[in-house]
Amino acid sequence: MTMEGMMDKAPTLLEIKAPIRICGDIHGQYQDLLRLFEYGGYPPSANYLFLRDYVDRGRQSLETICLLLAYKIRHPDKIYLLRGNHEDAKINRIYGFYDECKRRFNVRLWKIFTDCFNCFPVAALIDEKILCMHGGLSPELEHLGQIKEIQRPKIPDSGLLCDLLWSDPDARVGQIVIEVVEDGYEFFAKRKLVTIFSAPNYGGEFDNAGALLSVDESLVCSFEILKPVLPASTSKLILKKPPKAGKI
């Protein structure tokens, strides 16, 4: 079965069990993805839910998405990948992924990835209690059955699917807001909502931390923080390579 075929068979709303580790935006920051696995454990030693935005802006979008898809193929019940707004050809055509594919390989590869992204689920429900998505809640969402009825792959300019992928919660209504979360996570609505951002030093332009959210069997949530690394010290980081296939 192809990767596209595997993802296409997945429901639009995933229903998964704790314990699980949840990651937010990665944006092609491959070394930081490896740091996340160093903190949380490489699959299959831990279960992961990635919420979105694997590509664009970072320098190694291809390495990032290829590693995640390889783990998905190798351990389909240990790693789950949701669709974000950058898993859309209209967006990653502009913000770097298209150019990276074209420069390093060819446009055909980009098209293969976009076809695969079109099949990704858009939300996940953990133990019938914790609802996860890339963006935020929609005023059109009245029951979870609506998510299950979403037709892939097209992302409309408004409506439920658009809100799930684009509507990040924010208390600063009416202000211009940059999507980076300074501490890696931020609570809203009296701690009923939380945003997770997992790309420290976002794009090399911010001094933000990244976060990994761990949900245990009792649905108790805790955070592990990836502190920003100064560019001058990046070369001094010693990271393990992903385990070889025979050791995964």
Automatic annotation (TrEMBL):
The keyword Hydrolase applies. The keyword Hydrolase applies. Keywords: Hydrolase. InterPro entries: Calcineurin-like_PHP (IPR004843), Metallo-depent_PP-like (IPR029052), PP1_catalytic_subunit (IPR050341), Ser/Thr-sp_prot-phosphatase (IPR006186). One of its GO terms (molecular function) is protein serine/threonine phosphatase activity. It comes from the Eukaryota. PROSITE patterns: SER_THR_PHOSPHATASE (PS00125). Residues 82-87 form the Serine/threonine specific protein phosphatases domain. Its EC number is 3.1.3.16. GO terms for cellular component: cytoplasm; nucleus. It catalyses: O-phospho-L-threonyl-[protein] + H2O = L-threonyl-[protein] + phosphate. Belongs to the PPP phosphatase family. This is Serine/threonine-protein phosphatase. The lineage of its organism: Eukaryota, Viridiplantae, Streptophyta, Embryophyta, Tracheophyta.
